[in-house]
């Protein structure tokens, strides 16, 4: 047979091309990291729309992160042109589910204005329930338990739980969990909230009852399939129910969301449910130097139960990955800084801070790295679990927006009632919430009722508090809501205007000054950052945002959501969001990311600090194999240079908390280099080749920095470990000379 021609096929190898053009209804691509799975999936979308002729609005693509969705949309957009990518239903499972629920949720009894409870909201609600009902539960554990139940589609059933007996006190715990689950569900319902699990579960319900919502869908494509859970599998099946055309790509070795009920067995389930699946493997790794790939494979091959696949490097051997032991987390961070500078310096303008990632097992490890980068004047961005949206001042503004959007949200309302201070104590708020819950009212309606002088609501609040609430809070909120309603008649009140208006009404800057005398400026700057995020969001919606779901005959859609609703949903779903993430950052920055959020991405230079037992494998993890896969994911992000490191002492200045090298690495430690490469010209040329970049000449590199001989000793006169005082009294920065010539600006902005 002759292979059809299309420019999207040009950059592909044979196996990839076969996957892109396959006529099979179901296509499964199982292959290792860097083999081009995502690249192939994106190309297949373009192929299906542009060559096979599917309408963009009939194609669903699920990615694992918001960032991945954005990148994919951009690439597809470039290949398709005419903004056709906007019509494709492309996003994370959660965001796809949310869109369907926003459009059709009312057919299954959902209010049109639901809010999303993110993981932190859920945890807070559960903590409160446990306290109120005196349940002897650990809230995070209870949350995980509830989440597992929901993922399995199980309703709370406290009555069916076994009665506690003397013999089996654990049955009490079981009962408490069921009670907690029930309370939690009714709380969400009352407050018109859906948590992450609900988004999926309710969407499954919707698609089962009203299959016509997705009657237009021709095909469903899924990236990072190994991390889908049971409910997501069901959602995929239902989205594709009309034509049963599914393409999945994944890698069992990179399954790292078992703690969120992701199931590797969904892979085998797919092959069983869709027996005619065309299975295609991709065997070439286009991402990394051979030396990086070899060592990563040594690590993952320690798992004897794994599904074996071939993965061959296409690139040169490159330089050996580094494994470095340092005194403590502080010197470790200093070492990372010096290695970043060395690599960037020796590359002239070829490498910038954008090419560097520091990947951490947990967000709590970032402190030392942040402070070392900060001290060295190296700009960085944080991705994944670092919680811009959780700063107190940001959370307050968002909570007000949530209340404005949907006043029945008791959690948000309870949190802002006394912020800024209105003389309403925590006890009063708690009582009010309880009273509202008892009378099945929302807090807001209860207060409105009360303020109207309706004494059937017998709230116990002081006159002063009452005045503050009715005179200030309710009036202000009503004022803003009225403004919005008026505005929507003609044109909508802009999101940014709305936030501005809110901040003025709250006198928010003044509130910050009074409440946080030490760092109110930083906090106000954060609020400004939120405004600029809102601004970007609105601009993105106009530019590359998504079109409404296509109309389905006989099934009415809710009218288009307002921008505020979309913004709030975006904030709640963008757990992997970062500041300034819009592909047009002005200055290069190092990325600090959790390993989880780094999945699917790649960088020329990757550091993985804190590779010790307790950190990775993490002490609280129950699944050692998953921890190993996590390290494998981290290592395989690197294209050219990979550095692992760990501190001997966990705690600077103390010698009693010795660490030991991660057991995943200890057996292969001898295969690592002990220090970073010397960056000979030949290595730099290889790096340029892998990255397909121009390498500046030696003359150009050294011309930028006058009077500089370029021997290694000149560059790094003191080893960070030697700068550490042997008496263990702390870090002596005066002994760690940082050559002045390393002005980071010279290195990073050169080209
Ligand atoms: P992961 O498992 O980490 O998600 P992946 O299999 O999805 O990896 P991609 O991210 O799609 O891999 O590709 C890795 C790199 O290889 C990308 O930079 C991509 O552009 C490049 N690449 C993929 N296929 C080819 C090819 N046929 N020729 C050249 N480069 C390729
Ligand atoms: Mg990928």
Automatic annotation (TrEMBL):
Domain UvrD-like helicase ATP-binding stretches: 10-289
Biological process terms in GO annotation: DNA damage tolerance; mitotic recombination-dependent replication fork processing; recombinational repair
CDD domains: DEXQc_UvrD (cd17932), SF1_C_UvrD (cd18807)
Residue segments, region Disordered: 148-175
Segments of skewed composition (Low complexity): 156-174
GO cellular component, one term: nucleus
Keywords, alphabetical: ATP-binding, DNA-binding, Helicase, Hydrolase, Isomerase, Nucleotide-binding
InterPro entries with a match to the protein in the record: DExx_box_DNA_helicase_dom_sf, DNA_helicase_UvrD-like_C, DNA_helicase_UvrD/REP, P-loop_NTPase, UvrD-like_ATP-bd
Repeat is among the record's keywords: no
UniProt: ATP binding residues: 31-38
Gene3D superfamilies reported for this sequence: 1.10.10.160, P-loop containing nucleotide triphosphate hydrolases, PCRA, domain 4
The UvrD-like helicase C-terminal domain, residue ranges: 290-600
Domain of life: Eukaryota
Catalytic activity of the protein: Couples ATP hydrolysis with the unwinding of duplex DNA by translocating in the 3'-5' direction; ATP + H2O = ADP + phosphate + H(+)
A GO MF label: 3'-5' DNA helicase activity
Xref: Pfam families: UvrD-helicase, UvrD_C
Top-level EC class as recorded in UniProt: isomerase
EC number(s) on file: 5.6.2.4
Protein family membership: Belongs to the helicase family. UvrD subfamily.
PANTHER family: ATP-DEPENDENT DNA HELICASE SRS2 (PTHR11070:SF2), UVRD / RECB / PCRA DNA HELICASE FAMILY MEMBER (PTHR11070)
Name of the molecule in the record: DNA 3'-5' helicase
Organism, as annotated: Sordaria macrospora (strain ATCC MYA-333 / DSM 997 / K(L3346) / K-hell)
């Amino acid at each position: 047979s002759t292979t059809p021609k299309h420019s999207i096929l040009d950059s592909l190898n044979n196996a990839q091309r076969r996957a892109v053009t396959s006529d099979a209804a179901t296509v499964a691509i199982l292959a290792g990291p860097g083999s081009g799975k995502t690249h192939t999936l994106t190309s297949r979308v373009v192929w299906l729309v542009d060559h096979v002729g599917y309408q963009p609005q009939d194609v669903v693509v699920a990615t694992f992160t918001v960032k991945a969705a954005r990148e994919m949309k951009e690439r597809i957009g470039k290949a398709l042109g005419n903004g056709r990518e906007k019509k494709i239903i492309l996003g994370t499972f959660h965001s796809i589910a949310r869109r369907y629920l926003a459009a059709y949720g009312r057919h299954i009894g959902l209010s049109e204005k639901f809010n999303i409870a993110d993981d932190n909201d859920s945890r807070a609600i559960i903590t409160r329930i446990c306290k109120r009902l005196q349940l002897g539960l650990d809230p995070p554990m209870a949350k995980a338990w509830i989440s597992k139940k929901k993922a399995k589609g199980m309703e709370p059933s406290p009555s069916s739980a076994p009665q506690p007996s003397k013999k089996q006190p654990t049955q009490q715990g079981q009962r408490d969990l069921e009670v907690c689950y029930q309370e939690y569900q009714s709380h969400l319902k009352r407050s018109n909230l859906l948590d992450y699990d609900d988004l999926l579960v309710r969407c499954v319900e919707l698609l089962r009852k009203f299959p016509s919502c997705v009657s237009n869908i021709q095909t469903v494509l899924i990236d990072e399939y190994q991390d889908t859970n049971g409910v997501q599998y069901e959602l995929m099946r239902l989205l594709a129910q009309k034509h049963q055309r599914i393409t999945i790509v994944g890698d069992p070795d990179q399954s790292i969301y078992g703690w969120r009920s992701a199931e590797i067995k969904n892979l085998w389930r797919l092959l069983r449910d869709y027996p005619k699946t065309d299975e295609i493997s991709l065997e070439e790794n286009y991402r990394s130097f051979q030396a990086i790939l070899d060592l990563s494979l040594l690590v993952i091959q320690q798992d004897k139960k794994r599904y074996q696949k071939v993965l061959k490097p296409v690139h040169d051997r490159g330089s050996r990955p580094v494994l470095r032991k340092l005194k403590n987390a502080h010197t470790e961070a200093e070492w990372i800084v010096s290695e970043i500078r060395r690599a960037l310096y020796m590359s002239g303008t070829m490498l910038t801070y954008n090419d560097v990632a520091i990947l951490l097992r947990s967000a709590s490890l970032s402190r030392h790295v942040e402070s070392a980068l900060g001290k060295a004047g190296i700009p960085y961005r944080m991705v994944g679990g670092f919680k811009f949206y959780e700063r107190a001042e940001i959370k307050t503004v968002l909570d007000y927006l949530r209340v404005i959007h949907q006043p029945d949200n008791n959690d948000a309302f309870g949190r802002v009632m006394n912020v800024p201070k209105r003389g309403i104590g925590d006890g009063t708020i708690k009582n009010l919430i309880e009273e509202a819950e008892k009378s099945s009212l929302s807090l807001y309606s209860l207060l409105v009722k009360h303020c109207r002088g309706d004494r059937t609501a017998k709230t116990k609040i002081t006159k002063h508090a009452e005045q503050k609430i009715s005179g200030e809070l309710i009036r202000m909120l009503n004022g803003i809501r009225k403004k919005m309603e008026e505005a929507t008649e003609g044109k909508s009140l802009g999101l940014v205007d709305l936030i501005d208006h809110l901040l003025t009404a709250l006198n928010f800057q003044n509130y910050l000054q009074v409440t946080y005398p030490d760092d109110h400026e930083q906090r106000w700057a954060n609020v400004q950052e939120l405004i600029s995020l809102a601004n970007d969001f609105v601009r993105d919606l106009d530019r590359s945002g998504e079109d409404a779901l296509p109309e389905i005959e006989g099934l009415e859609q809710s009218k288009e959501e307002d921008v505020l609703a979309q913004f709030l949903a975006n904030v709640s779903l963008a757990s992997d969001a970062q500041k300034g993430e819009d592909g047009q950052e002005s200055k290069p920055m190092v990325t600090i990311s959790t390993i989880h959020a780094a999945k699917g991405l790649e960088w020329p230079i990757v550091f993985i600090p804190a590779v010790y037992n307790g950190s990775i494998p993490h002490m609280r993890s129950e699944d050692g194999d998953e921890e190993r896969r996590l390290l494998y994911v981290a290592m395989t992000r690197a294209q050219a240079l990979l550095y692992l490191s760990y501190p001997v002492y966990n705690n600077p200045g103390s010698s009693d908390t010795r660490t030991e090298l991660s057991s995943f690495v200890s057996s292969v430690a001898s295969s690592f280099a002990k220090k970073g490469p010397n960056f000979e010209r030949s290595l730099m040329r290889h790096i340029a080749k892998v990255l397909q970049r121009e390498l500046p000449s030696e003359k150009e590199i050294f011309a930028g920095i006058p009077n500089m001989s370029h021997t290694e000793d000149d560059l790094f006169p003191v080893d960070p470990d030697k700068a550490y005082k042997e008496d263990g009294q702390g870090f002596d920065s005066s002994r760690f000379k940082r050559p002045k010539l390393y002005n980071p600006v010279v290195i990073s902005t050169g080209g």
